Automatic annotation (TrEMBL):
NADPH-dependent FMN reductase-like domain location: 22-170
Gene3D superfamilies on file: 3.40.50.360
Listed InterPro entries: CE1759_FMN_reduct, Flavoprotein-like_sf, FMN_Rdtase-like_dom, NAD(P)H-dep_FMN_reductase
UniProt KW Flavoprotein keyword: yes
Protein name from the UniProt record: FMN reductase
Organism: Isoptericola cucumis
Pfam families, per database record: FMN_red
Domain of life: Bacteria
Keywords: Flavoprotein, FMN, Oxidoreductase
Length: 222
């Protein structure tokens, strides 16, 4: 987990921006991991958009492989401890969430599901969430819509319209090429999440129409 220092003056009266915390959950099992790479790219895109909107951003990254044994223990005892307890606090206390899983046998990984099984079922209510997944081929891309999105809908999260799947071949596109393929989808998804995180109010409901996408966005434009 990474916790950059942020000045206490942020969020004070007269400050030009407000503080936002972004939680990133990666369920990759290997090191290096394409799942973590996608999670980092999505986080970078969201942070850029939030900073353009005038916010200071803190990113908390949770690698599930590091707390895998604690997740199993918590499922048995119902009492998360240590690094897992801190990870749960980071995730449930964030202003927005990026959740990325590898796809195994047409669905998210067991570790990914087990982590959300130990999260309080009411903790993600109304939280803006961006979903991502990785797999060997594009055949697995629909797992985002028939498996991952229903999971977070059940948890009453506010899932952004664009989810991002990265197959092995998608990484061949240049990271600087924002006009095509995976980089374009990442940029669009980050923009959608940033807009919802920006208007979210922790002390009350946000304007329900503030994050409504424009007709241009709905038609696939920038």
């Amino acid at each position: 987990m990474t916790t950059p220092e942020i000045p206490d003056t942020l969020g004070a009266p007269g400050a030009t921006g407000t503080r936002r915390t972004l939680a990133v959950v990666s369920a990759g099992l290997s090191q290096p991991s394409s799942t973590r790479l996608l999670a980092d790219r999505l986080a970078d895109a969201t942070v850029r958009e939030l900073e353009d909107l005038g916010h200071e951003v803190r990113v908390e990254t949770v690698e599930l492989r590091d707390v895998a044994h604690a997740v199993v223990d918590a499922m048995l005892t119902r009492f998360p401890t240590g690094d897992l307890a801190r990870a749960l606090e980071d995730v449930t206390g964030a202003d927005g969430l990026i959740a990325v899983s590898p796809v195994f046998t047409t669905s998210y990984s067991g570790l990914f599901k087990s982590f959300w099984d130990v999260v309080d079922p009411d903790a993600l209510t109304g939280m803006p969430v961006l979903l991502g997944a990785t797999g060997g081929t594009a055949r697995h891309s629909l797992a985002l819509e028939y498996a991952m999105r229903p999971l977070f809908t059940y948890l009453r999260a506010d899932v952004v319209p664009t989810s991002v799947f990265a197959a092995t071949d998608d990484w061949a596109a240049s990271a600087d090429d924002q006009g095509a393929g995976l980089p374009r989808r990442i940029a669009r998804a980050g923009r959608e999440l940033a807009r919802r995180v920006s208007v979210r109010e922790n002390d009350g409901p946000a304007d329900p129409f503030a994050a409504t996408p424009s007709f241009t966005e709905l038609l696939g434009g920038n």
